[in-house]
Design goal:
single chain; mainly alpha; two-stranded antiparallel ribbon; 16 helices; 2 strands
């Protein structure tokens, strides 16, 4: 028995009977030789962690566009917080921690530059629309290259969890459900933290009913939500909060939409970023052949529209790369002899 086989047996012997077992995975799009050390889900986690799309998350907006402070969340730090929360819940419920980690690390790979503003604009510009979860799946299935083949060839369970992580979707595994609820726990709490740091909301502005039932500090609220999910989901076929905690969590999320996500101060640069994405999209619509060779090859080798390929290119940009591209396309450069 090699190390992988021992750990596969450990999962079968010690994880909950409801856990997804790596040995029983529905598999990959094409077969590969097994690793002697890592399980299938551990390999998926590593492939995502080493991908270019994952590294780009560090320069993608979470909520606040181009914040000057060093301590505001980015799409990468959000992803790491989701991963930490997911692993805590999975471990406590006896579910597959490796699978939850892989899904969590990959769930936002398809997010656009400039946060949800970029997502909204691409959704308006693309004929087939745009959803970041679908784009995240497209990243791991098509846009990342491994061994000169399109995609990372991840297991079904990881791809399913990535696609179905948004609220209202139905992941096939309990581990996928954990990532979905952990995503919500993470962004609600860290967006409050960032909004307070930015002065978008004031300490006394958050209604007392939320603080009383969920906690008065960032750590207290996260701890309350995590423990509630664990207590409410033990030995059940669904990962969920209790009715009470879910009620106040949903109400707190509504408070954030009203006071932070749609706040004019927080979104003061939104019109500029909208203009940048629209103009980049317009340029490559009229000059498709000037796209990077990587994207032109994807167009040549697949049955995708030009609009989809332009969308892929823009969605993969970091905030600063999008601004740099706009500058190169539209800003005159000093003439030199």
């Amino acid at each position: 028995m090699n190390i992988r086989e021992k750990y596969e047996q450990f999962e079968i012997d010690h994880l909950s009977y409801k856990a997804a077992k790596s040995k029983l995975s529905k598999g990959r799009d094409y077969d590969e030789a097994k690793c002697e050390i890592r399980t299938e889900y551990q390999r998926d986690r590593d492939r995502i962690l080493h991908s270019k799309a994952f590294r780009r998350l560090k320069h993608k907006t979470q909520v606040f566009l181009s914040p000057e402070g060093d301590h505001y969340r980015t799409r990468l730090t959000h992803t790491l917080e989701v991963s930490q929360i997911s692993r805590t819940i999975a471990r406590s419920l006896g579910l597959n921690e490796d699978l939850t980690e892989a899904i969590a690390l990959g769930h936002d790979l398809g997010h656009t530059p400039f946060g949800h503003t970029g997502e909204r604009i691409l959704n308006e510009l693309c004929k087939k629309g745009f959803k970041h979860n679908e784009q995240s799946l497209r990243v791991v299935e098509i846009l990342e290259i491994r061994n000169e083949r399109q995609g990372l060839n991840l297991t079904f369970e990881v791809r399913d969890g990535i696609l179905n992580h948004p609220l209202g979707y139905n992941p096939a595994t309990l581990e996928g459900q954990i990532v979905s609820i952990s995503d919500r726990i993470a962004y609600i709490n860290h967006d409050i933290d960032d909004a307070l740091r930015a002065g978008i909301i004031k300490p006394g502005q958050i209604p007392d009913k939320f603080l009383l039932h969920l906690g008065y500090t960032h750590g207290q609220r996260i701890n309350k939500m995590i423990i509630d999910v664990i207590n409410n989901s033990t030995d059940k076929d669904k990962i969920s909060m209790s009715d009470e905690v879910n009620h106040y969590t949903t109400a707190l999320r509504d408070f954030l939409f009203e006071n932070v996500y749609y706040n004019k101060v927080a979104k003061s640069e939104e019109e500029k970023t909208t203009f940048i994405i629209e103009k980049i999209f317009e340029y490559y619509t009229n000059n498709f052949e000037t796209l990077p060779e990587f994207y032109l090859k994807i167009y040549e080798n697949n049955n995708f529209s030009k609009s989809e390929i332009i969308k892929d290119y823009i969605a993969g940009m970091t905030d600063r790369y999008a601004m740099k591209t706009f500058e190169e396309l539209y800003i005159p450069k000093p003439w030199r002899q």
